[in-house]
Amino acid sequence: MAKNEELVFVPLGGVGEIGMNLALYGYGSPSNREWIMVDCGVTFPGPELPGVDLVLADVSFIAARKNKLKAIIITHAHEDHYGGLNDIWPGLNVPVYASGFTAGMLEAKRDYEGTRAEIPVTPFKAGDVINVGPFSIEAVGVNHSIPEPMSLVIRTPLGNVVHTGDWKIDHHPSLGPLTDEARFRALGDEGVLAVMCDSTNSMRDGVSPSEEEVSEGLRKIIEAAEGRVAITTFSSNVGRIRSIAQAAEAAGREVLLLGSSLKRVCAVADDLGIMEGLKPFIAEDEFGFIPRDKVVIILTGSQGEPRAALAKIARDEMRHVALTAGDTVVFSSRTIPGNEKAIIEIKNGLMEQGIHIVTDSEALVHVSGHPRRNELLQMYEWTRPQILVPVHGEAAHLISQAELAEQAGIQFVPRVRNGDMLRLAPGEPEVIDQVPHGRIYKDGKLLGDLDEMGIANRRKLSYVGHVAVNVVLDARYEFHGDPELVTFGLPQCDQEGESMEDTLYDAVLGAVESIPRARRKDLETLRESIRRAVRGTANDAWGKKPIVTVFVTKV
Fold this sequence. Notes:
By secondary structure, this protein is α/β, with parallel strands linked by helices. The chain folds into three domains: about 5-205 and about 370-450, 4-Layer Sandwich (Metallo-beta-lactamase, Chain A), CATH 3.60.15; about 210-360, Rossmann fold, CATH 3.40.50.10710; about 465-555, Ubiquitin-like (UB roll). It has an eight-stranded mixed β-sheet. The chain has a six-stranded mixed β-sheet with strand order 9-10-11-12-13-19. α4 runs antiparallel to α8, α6 runs parallel beside α7 and α14 packs antiparallel against α15 (about 525-540). The N and C termini lie far apart (about 75 Å).
């Protein structure tokens, strides 16, 4: 080992935010590091990003070093961990390692989205070890709310790192595996330099309830219901889907799946034998022939998505499926921050129809797939790391786990955020650099930053509208015909009831006529004068300045 070799950790997403998880590990001298990437997730846009479909981490830092990037390892098939791979991989073109379920979900996503990337995936599951460059990477089974999740043990000449991914301790899950306590304890005995640990629930005391308790709660609701039961949950939570299907069967009810993402996930799970033992689900056109007390619907829309099945039912827009007064809708999910308003609107629409709503505030119908504080303490006890790096969370979550780790006696708990380069070894951990990081946006079929995608101007348009002006001048620099003016997204009239278009038209005339003909030869100056006049007049009449585009032509 050369004297100047270092082990570094660089998060490009997911550390300081929920979602878009992407981490890099580098080994070697500062001028000759080799890298691996762990996860490649997305987050979802809010109303501040009109038209944007997905938000991805900016990978320009590692793209510039792609000849030194040895592998991408995906811990599990949640969107915030794998959802960006189809879009980012073509620019990297390196080996990808993932579980069979994750590989199946990638293929299903590619087919659904019509993306060009056909990513060759090498199967990688709990107990497997791969060797890439200076890294030896072992997968360790953990429990989470999706099939085949894993933590990673990353071995290097300078020490072992545990990258937990998403996990919890559940001794009675509806779908395995169990979090492998024995393996984590053995790793602790071997020696763990650092743990990069999930912080999502670090502000919650105690232990997360078991999925077994949720299954029991859902079973009681289904058995007690007099009418139809519709249960919405995250489409990736195959264990929850199995629990609901089993509870429905025990109550003598048929099951209908609604929602394309739900059907894709279940198709992949079925191919891998994960759905084995369940009765076949009914078809949508069979729904109307089944008595109300003999059916359970599992459907998408738990986050208020306007095009999801639940939203369509709330608006009574489904062709074959409807709910009526006395039926029950169960939200077997948590509300992701930012989705509250959309979910409330759906609930109101359902309640107006006389439908009974059950959420996790009324009954145990959902548990998180992430560890609470006592579970975090268990992981510390098992692995006994020298360094604990809180990841996967907003500032509040990261700080909460940092305080917990310090109280537990862990020696080093460095503060790390997206773009920080943390040297883990040799010596004490230290942030030694800042690398380029940020966000890129998927807009239709294209990827780019705010300016490249025109998102900043699009945002302005959504607030202040647009005015287009066309002025044609003759050889004497007088008007050749009347100017043309078109407004888009502006009020029709001002406070006095005057037409906004007429007011702005007069501003165009005034701007041109105020400039002597000799000076009108400078078409660019004339164009800018018209633009300023229109914006100023709109501001006087309306109180806002629209985007103004001016065309000046001399014939």
